[in-house]
Write the structure tokens for this entry.
Amino acid sequence: MKLHFLGTGTSFGVPVIGCDCGVCTSSDERDRRTRHAAILEEGDRRLLIDTPPELRLQLVRAGIG
């Protein structure tokens, strides 16, 4: 069984529009986080957990098709 975290940001994602904190204004790519989502895989079965609006982007980045 595998658990893939597709997004680990807040319900708004990071950076948050209009926020001027150090994380939201950082140029470090590791500070860019999409909204929370995960996929659980066991064999040929997959279970999506919480599907944000940017799910397609998250799946493409993770190489899950």
